[in-house]
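We were asked to recover a plausible sequence for a given structure. The inputs and outputs are reproduced exactly as logged, with field labels preserved.

PROBLEM: sequence recovery
POSITIONS: 164
GIVEN STRUCTURE:
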């Protein structure tokens, strides 16, 4: 939030695990949901910085955007001006996990690092420059490419570039 207040971007995107909206914490000895508290904190910080971000948040599932895995994530987008932004509608899932695997043999096994990165929406041309274990870890910490692309298309990022 500090960086957003300092840099004042026209738009920003925050992503986190979906459990953040269900998590409860204790604030001043009172149990409450963490997400509404965090939203209030954000709005207070923005107001103190003289910023009026129009905030939109929603939980998106990768399986609703073309990737065959149930991976729900909270996306919060802040626009420096008021918008009528709507989150992208789901699309039909057309591929199965088998389409992303090198070994199509039925049975339970660990996914390879390349298969994990594919299931995050990265093409095979995405270069691996770290060990397999680090590549797998990076896949697990990544944002699903198709979710980000759906958001970018929906918000028309061409409107937020540098003015000439």
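RECOVERED SEQUENCE:
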């Amino acid at each position: 939030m500090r960086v957003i207040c300092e840099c004042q971007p026209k738009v920003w995107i925050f992503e986190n695990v979906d459990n953040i909206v269900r998590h409860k914490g204790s604030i001043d000895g009172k149990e409450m949901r963490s997400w509404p508290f965090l939203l209030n904190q954000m709005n207070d910080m923005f107001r103190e910085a003289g910023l009026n971000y129009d905030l939109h948040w929603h939980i998106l599932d990768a399986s609703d955007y073309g990737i065959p895995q149930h991976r729900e994530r909270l996306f919060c987008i802040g626009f420096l001006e008021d918008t009528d932004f709507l989150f992208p509608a789901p699309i039909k899932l057309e591929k199965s996990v088998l389409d992303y695997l090198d070994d199509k043999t039925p049975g339970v096994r660990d996914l390879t690092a390349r298969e994990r990165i594919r299931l995050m929406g990265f093409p095979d041309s995405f270069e691996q420059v770290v060990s397999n274990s680090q590549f797998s870890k990076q896949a697990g910490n990544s944002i699903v490419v198709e979710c980000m692309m759906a958001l970018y298309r929906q918000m028309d990022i061409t409107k937020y570039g540098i003015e000439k």
